[in-house]
Amino acid sequence: MNDKVMKGLGVLVVGAAIWFIPVPIGLKPVAWKLFAIFVATILGFILQPLPIGSIAFISITFTALAGVLKPAEALSGFSNGTIWLIVSAFLFAKGFIKTGLGRRIAYMLIKKMGDSTLKLGYTIVLSDLIISPATPSNAARAGGIIFPIVRSLASAFDSEPGPSARRVGSFLMQVGYQGNTITSAMFMTSMAGNPLIALLALQALNINITWGQWALAALAPGLLSLLVIPYFLYKVYPPELKETPEAKVLATKELETMGAMSIGEKIVAGIFVGALVLWSTSQYTKLDATVVAMLAVSVMMIARVLEWKDVLEEKGAWDTLIWMGALVGLADYLSKLGFIPWFSKVVSASIVGIPWLQAFMVLLVIYMYAHYGFASLTAHITAMYSAFVTVAAAAGAPVYLAALALAFMSNLCMSLTHYAAAPAPIYFGAGYISQGTWWKLGFWISVINMIIWVGLGSLWWKVLGLW
Amino acid sequence: MNDKVMKGLGVLVVGAAIWFIPVPIGLKPVAWKLFAIFVATILGFILQPLPIGSIAFISITFTALAGVLKPAEALSGFSNGTIWLIVSAFLFAKGFIKTGLGRRIAYMLIKKMGDSTLKLGYTIVLSDLIISPATPSNAARAGGIIFPIVRSLASAFDSEPGPSARRVGSFLMQVGYQGNTITSAMFMTSMAGNPLIALLALQALNINITWGQWALAALAPGLLSLLVIPYFLYKVYPPELKETPEAKVLATKELETMGAMSIGEKIVAGIFVGALVLWSTSQYTKLDATVVAMLAVSVMMIARVLEWKDVLEEKGAWDTLIWMGALVGLADYLSKLGFIPWFSKVVSASIVGIPWLQAFMVLLVIYMYAHYGFASLTAHITAMYSAFVTVAAAAGAPVYLAALALAFMSNLCMSLTHYAAAPAPIYFGAGYISQGTWWKLGFWISVINMIIWVGLGSLWWKVLGLW
Fold this sequence. Notes:
Strand content of chain A: under 5%
Number of helices of chain A: 23
Order of helices and strands of chain A: HHHHHHHHHHHHHHHHHHHHHHH
Structural class of chain A: mainly alpha
Shape of chain A: globular
Oligomer: homodimer
Mean pLDDT of chain A: 90
Radius of gyration of chain A: 23 Å
Number of domains of chain A: 2
């Protein structure tokens, strides 16, 4: 019997065990059965006896087949606005990469300020920051836009994996990766799982985190992190080569090769700015974030910078639609059928008397370092966010503080390992940084990020009146 | 200004013209605006300034942006069970084709009676007829059973979408679809909406149409249609390859080459039989047709005869999901917001005082061709059947004649468009027949079917003593 079959059986055994346990008092049997399916699904996402899309599909099929949910209820996640925000954002990013606009922005920044290795590091981080609100796939941002530039920069300075790695390559790779970690946390649309967080917070705590609120709350700690982390790396993991006047030459050459901005790039740039304006003003215009993203994609299709065949070939969008849509449907009914309220009540009862601040700190640390066990930010969010935010609120933590701090931790935990999320294997796979070094640097950066985001961040959110 | 831009402007002008016309009395402004969007969308599907997927996407984006529907309402079609039956049917067919089972069945048919293309057409129609009383989902019958065989047959004769489409593929696809249209009308259990018709007739006219009555009334016109339509298509839309005497030899050789059935084929065959049993017993098990289709796909994924990457690469499924999901959502709200009931009332009011035969003929024609505005037979029935059957009876038409003729029209209108009902996008999506050809053939077949079913049918029903 092979490994996959063992894992599959493990998932089934756990699901069946929960299914057949006597239903706890105060809970409807159907809610408990749905919980069993939910746990088995999450376990399936972690162990992956089959790809997560298959598991999600099988999961909702079983849910409908067993009569736990009606077919229409089991399928309800597929018309969820958040899911279509993500699908649209995948398509948006495709236009960004396809036209070359992302690469151009990076090279322009390097040409302007790339004359030292530290400055180059900041340039990389800044490029990532600029495009991050429009690229919810941080893997697309890393793999499609920033990483290729970092890789070619390293080569331009004769820094290759091996003896010359530490010349500039190792430093730039780590800055590129850790910068991506930070920018992922900064916008609701800069990481695929972030809109899910907003939805889960709404389901669990009945609070509505808007695009603008998220961006504003992340602004101060985010910018501080983006300043501190590259400098920290520059000090503890320094490049051998500090001055890099050649980078400007390289960027100038690349920009010459690219020629003038194409019509397509100009259109995408215009759509990008327009979408940012509409997203950040949504509390006044009342325009739904999903509708804005769909509008951006619509304009790209009308302008033909995005062809319909590009849409159909964007497998990431369909993969996410299925597994996330299925999961959102299940999670939604977990709440509607009374499981989440019951769970909150049970937990609240059990932590009465513990001061909320201590409880919350413990929760944050557990949540962050639990990511050593995950290979996907979204899987981590899916498995733990709802429960942790519910418990934090039940312990007495202010709801926005709890929701936001956990939201940011959901991204910042990406610093830890070389398999933490999709961008990790891209940067790690280049071969400039050993696993031991990655984990060591990642751990210290996680500590710095916690201090900046939770310690200083909480003061900023107090100023903003969020708690 | 190029052709596509002109067409796009044409769509916008027509949509805007309807949008800004004063709203007819008795109709909410929002229903009229949605009608304007719907007409523009359908016109966009016809003129195709952009691929229909893009148009559908833009259409629901605009609907939400203009506040005609809430975002969740505009996206509602994406969790529609029928849509996921279609998506599942695409995946089911993929397993059918991938394992070679479809090819094997096709070669077995060819070996038996494949010496002319016309005979092959009749074989397809006959297969559909045999299983139709047991498959209330005509989409499951088309997508899960007949379509994969038709698709494999086409491939077996080297007829693929493109230059070789007309070799045999286009003809067989159209025969398969139009055969499904006819068999859908023939039994109370051969189309999901048919039992609803019986219920509505009972409610409106207090007549009880039994399963046997339906089958008997449909027998003569149904068999005649099944004889005439394939021959009609053979004459006006002929396959390039007519005589295929070498096909039997080829089929025998191919079957020998294929050898014994593989494990994969046996699994798919087992799933196929299982799905057939579950579909045909759905009135007892109460299992939803969509859930059965999803179960079949789930089992295929677990058994690894269908890999997740196959699913993600099945572009036809995603294309259909987008355009049909968008359209079904719009059509659903066209009814919910009161447009369809208003339309029925206006029509009813305009025929008061006209002799029943004329009035009835006008009603039948309107009822049939109103289906240009529907993407679901059941939606059409729900929206219009009660009103029309009531008006017909009120005008003096014999009740059984009125009830049965409208019942059959409720299915035969499926011939018209490539979005008429769930089987349509399955056959259309295969890419063998252009939209223009589909509509032209569909219109003529609707006329032939009306003559056979209403003209000759009414004589048959007279013989049966139904009026």
